[in-house]
Amino acid sequence: MSHVAHELHEEFPEKAEAIHALKASNAHFARIAEEYHTLNRAIHRMETNVEPVDDATLEDLKKKRLALKDEIAGFLTEVNA
After folding, report:
1. Among 32, 45, 78, 39, which residue's Cα sits nearest to residue 62?
2. Could you state, in order of their start, the residue ranges of all structural domains in the chain?
3. CA-to-CA distance for 51 and 60, rounded, in angstroms?
4. How does pLDDT run across 19-57, given as a tens digit for each residue?
5. Number of H helices, E strands in the chain
């Protein structure tokens, strides 16, 4: 189990400027980036037992985080296309 937070700037280090620009110019991207951040921090607290949770719930939240990350990656791919 990883105890490292998966922040967007760490997941997409070469896309930091694009992430910032999209947050400022695209309301949907800004919303999903914020949702990713909020969910990511909650998962990190759960993984480090600050907020204990059952394994099934944690796995469901990780799947949601992955789906958001995939959507964010899609936006970042479109920016470079």
Report:
1. 39
2. 21-45+54-80
3. 16
4. 999 999 999 999 999 999 999 999 999 999 999 999 999
5. 4, 0
